[in-house]
Protein 1
Amino acid sequence: MSRDEITVDIIDRFQREYPVDIYGMAQALKIRVVEQDLPDTISGKIEHWWRGDFMITVNSRHSRTRKRFTIAHEIAHYVLHRDLIGEDGITDNALYRDNRIGDIRERQANRYAATLLMPKSLVRRAWNEGVNDHQAMAQAFDVSPAVAEIRLRELGSVFWSRPQDTLLF
Ligand SMILES: [Zn+2]
């Protein structure tokens, strides 16, 4: 298997139950996760660490759900933008932006992060198990209500095929 196939395989393995174990996913990808007391304006960063492996640093002052999102966002950079993680790494400010990598890639990373934490198949399962609004979804997936709301809106069409649910979105 190529490195990309292995990555996809590992991610897939961690998307079989919710809440997604994002720390376990990072570890399986050989990405070390550390917490550091960073300024409020920094969410986290990803950088080369050791022999082709990477390290993610998250802001220890942030909430648990925020840290989980930051880790997912940095994993997204690892998957999508690995070649752009230079000597200095990628550092994300509070709005998940690194000026050198550009807004389009940051939006890609945010989108991908949301799919890592709330994959469609699991959201659908949760929905069928009675998790039917964004607050409950946020709890079930251990994400902030804002992330759950955005992701549910994005996935709206998945549920629109079931007319009885349409009104909830
Ligand atoms: Zn970023």
Protein 2
Amino acid sequence: MNQKKVLAIGAHYDDMEQFCGGTLLLLRKQGYDILIAVLTAGECGTNELSAKEIVKIRQKEAKLGAKKIGAKVTCLNIRDGCVSYDLETTKKIVKLMREYQPQIIFTHPTVDYMTDHAHTGQLVLWAVPEATHPNFPVETNAPALEKQPWVYHTDPQGLIGLDGQIVRVNTIVDISEVVETKLSAFASHKSQIGFLKVESSGRTIDSVEKTRRWAITRGQQARVEYGEGFMQQLLEQYPRKNILSEALKDRVFTL
Ligand SMILES: [Zn+2]
């Protein structure tokens, strides 16, 4: 296993830049290879264009966003809005994991208002142990993972959980140094910026501004300017050590 490989698995092309782009940038600077894998090509990210038209646009935007992070990007071509928690999708993710052999995985949380996101988080937790089992049936010659990788769940949309509260995280990464690059990478997904606008105190804010606000909120918890929050997966069998602290040193706060 290459010890410096990061796999960021999101539902849509812009998700990983939005939720963990700063941390990916910092890991890239430490020499990590970064692969952003999205489950869907984002057919639902429009109210005007056809599925074919929006996918073409989003593929171009994704290349640009990934380039700014220093990452590669790939898509599993599941239809947007249709990410299901099922065996077929799990097999696709196991195949991806075996072929890439990541040490660290970032993905969505298992609860999010957007079901594609929540299912992606759940699918990763199904796929990780099976990626280590050589007899789990997957069509690839790539070997099973030797060790269970580290998994970090990002924040949900709006940082908000089912109870309306800001969700608990156990890790905050200080992304102040790279926040503008992160936001610029996220802004590469131009077709989505206005599409995902929200109302705030009677004013419309676009998703770049919204993402900056989340980073300020997470930063405050660690008394730094901008942060990204994560829940390190600590279920039985997952590694206990916080590998991000080792990789990114004093930029990481374990809460
Ligand atoms: Zn998404």
